[in-house]
Amino acid sequence: MGEMKAADRVTLGLAFLRTMVRIREFEMHARIGYDRGEIPGVVHLSIGQEAVPAGVCANLRRDDYVASTHRGHGHCIAKGADVTAMMAELFGKTTGTCKGKGGSMHIADFSVGMLGANGVVGGGIGIAVGAAQAARLLHKDAISACFFGDGAVNRGPFLEGLNWAAVFNLPVLFICEDNTFSAFTRASDTTAGKGPTARAEAIGVRALSVDGNNVFAVYEAARELVEGIRAGHGPGFLHAPTYRLDGHTVFDKAPYRSNEEVEYHRGDDPVALLESRLHAWGVDGTQLDAIHIEAREEMVRAMEAARKAPSPSEADAFADVQLIGAPR
Amino acid sequence: MTGNVETARAEATTTCTIAEAAREALAEEMRRDPTVWALGEDLAAGGIFGAYKGLAQEFGSERIVSTPISESMIMNVGFGAALAGTRPVVEMRILDFALCAWDELINQIAKARYMFGGQGNVPVVIRMPQGIGRGHQAAQHSQSLEAWLVHTPGLVVLAPATAADEKGMLKSAIRCDDPVAMLEPKALFPTTGEVPAGEHLTPIGVARIAREGSDVTLVTWSTLLPTALVAAEKAHEAGISVEVIDLRSLWPWDREAVMRSVAKTKRAVVAHEAVAVGGFGAEIAASISEELGLRVTRVGAPRIPVAYAPILENTYRVSAERILAAIERSA
């Protein structure tokens, strides 16, 4: 960031903040919706992890592809998915991104290249690699970005996908959004060796590791990797350690960690870090407040729209199964 | 919707093996549509059954992709590439290896249209040669698992048994906008048959009367078809006229053709190479029973893994004699 002009870094920082605050407000409203019983199903929140999608997706175009995880709201929002349709999906309404059939774990918006959250750890890796292979076959210059967590590095698709992308020199950015916990267990307790970056390097994939709470650092590292990927140098890997401030799901009280530990990590809250930086760069507090207010109002409107939206009918259960061989 | 139009513009036929028919189908579709491509192990070398012979030379390594031995990635790359606008043909080598990619097939591919609310098509064909092959390859290379696939909403399941249907169904599968599980008759790959030259599409969901008869209806598919025809001939010699239905499309399956035949014969036998317990034959039998009130006789393998020693392998195998016995005791 050394060479960036002061005005540019403020503009960029405000853009990151808007994305990150929109993600956070979406998550907080999702939690409210769940607590009130308006959202019927499981939701995995990404509060505390917002810098990773914001920093990465700022390097992506609309026609690039993203594959995500069960904790995918942030990736969807950063890629440009419509939050009104996303919220309606959490409510299980017909106006949802998936007409209420997918819920939080299957939010997708193909119109912005968002190929789906995924209910299976590591499930998005092959999808992203395949989309990149298709882009090449169709002579498009789009790339794929694939988000996954620290747990996925212990699954087979991690090895298979990185090896595949390297062998075929495909335009894929792999992002390990390492939120410290693989569900209820510390990733460090279940992961041997020198970590995700070393594994990627062992496969011959260019890898960088950055502070996943520092959105500028994420952005710069992702930019460097994306430039190489777009230039045809093959896949890149970004390890972004961060911290999941909420439980694994909305009903996980996370008794496996201490309150002191969580409070300690609140000191590294990526939104607060960015705001203090912007403040130091002379951005007015009211300008920051305005971003929060705008995002909050947007999510309140999204919740209101979701409440009013029609629920699916029983007949809808039989729609969109397959074109040939309709269900019986 | 494409892939469901019966077409036979061809005037001439050629004789070729099932493997050659498959190769011809894929080559024709790749020439017709530049978004069709294939990925799997050893494809540049022609594939283990020769079904890809020469295709890498014609279409290049970007469309005939020889992959790492990474089944889950082969399957999921096919999925992602289908979402991103291409029509991949995923080669699993044999069905048994697809079990390494079952998450990608069952959890991802089959459910994508539904769980994403119909946002996009998943036009991927998954080729899974199944059944006992040649060479006594034992428990992990010999399974017939169509029941698992038919049980999974979202999939079209095809099981051709002849060279003509191998060509016509593979072409229809490639043009289909749903994911298609293509269960190819592994043991029959080297057998020859008449194939219409040029454009030939077998419609999905339409059974074929392989032999007309009037006393008993015998429903079968895939590798067991030749055995069923032998049994029907033996029954004929014993004075029983058997109508053999090659179901060939397992989902959707041609209820109308089956019911029409059974309504005529009033006797039905269902025979398949797969284990009888929980097999797809049970679904056909139950459907006939529910619709026509008839008792149906099932023939399938015992619920044991396929063994190596020929005598043990044969214990698993459904023979013409077993089918004949079922025909004789059906009533």
How do the helices and strands line up, and which of them pair or pack?
The complex is a heterodimer of chains A (328) and B (331).
Chain A: H1 6-35, H2 51-57, E1 65-67, H3 73-79, H4 83-91, H5 123-137, E2 144-149, H6 156-167, E3 172-178, E4 181-182, E5 185-186, H7 187-190, H8 196-202, E6 206-209, H9 215-230, E7 236-241, H10 259-266, H11 270-280, H12 285-308
Parallel strand pairs in A: 1-2, 2-3, 3-7, 6-7
Antiparallel strand pairs in A: 4-5
Chain B: E1 7-8, E2 13-17, H1 18-32, E3 36-40, H2 55-59, E4 64-66, H3 71-83, E5 87-91, H4 95-98, H5 102-109, H6 112-115, E6 125-127, H7 146-150, E7 156-158, H8 163-175, E8 180-182, E9 192-196, E10 200-201, E11 208-211, E12 216-220, H9 225-237, E13 242-246, E14 249-251, H10 255-265, E15 268-275, H11 280-292, E16 296-301, H12 310-316, H13 320-329
Parallel strand pairs in B: 3-4, 3-5, 5-6, 6-8, 7-8, 12-13, 12-15, 15-16
Antiparallel strand pairs in B: 1-10, 2-9, 7-14, 11-13
Helix pairs in contact in B: 1-8, 3-5, 9-13, 10-11
Instruction: State the helical fraction of chain B.
Output: 25-40%
Total count of strands of chain A: 7
Largest interface: A-B, 51 and 52 residues
In which order are the strands of the major sheet of chain A placed?
1-2-3-7-6
| Largest sheet: spatial strand order of chain B | 4-3-5-6-8-7-14
**Cα-to-Cα separation, first versus last residue of chain B:** 41 Å
- The CATH homologous superfamily of the largest domain in chain B corresponds to Thiamin diphosphate (ThDP)-binding fold, Pyr/PP domains
Described by the principal axes of the CA atoms, the overall outline of chain A is globular
Total beta strands of chain B: 16
Order of helices and strands of chain B: EEHEHEHEHHHEHEHEEEEEHEEHEHEHH
Oligomer: heterodimer
CATH class of chain A: Alpha Beta
Q: How would a textbook summarize the main sheet of chain A? A: 5 strands, parallel
List the secondary-structure elements of chain A in sequence, H or E.
Answer: HHEHHHEHEEEHHEHEHHH
Q: What structural class is derived from the secondary structure elements of chain B?
A: alpha/beta
CATH uppermost class of the largest domain in chain B: Alpha Beta
Q: How many domains make up the 3D coordinates of chain A? A: 1
* Largest pleated sheet of chain B: 7 strands, mixed
Give the name of the CATH superfamily of chain A: Thiamin diphosphate (ThDP)-binding fold, Pyr/PP domains
Separation, N- and C-terminal Cα atoms of chain A: 59 Å
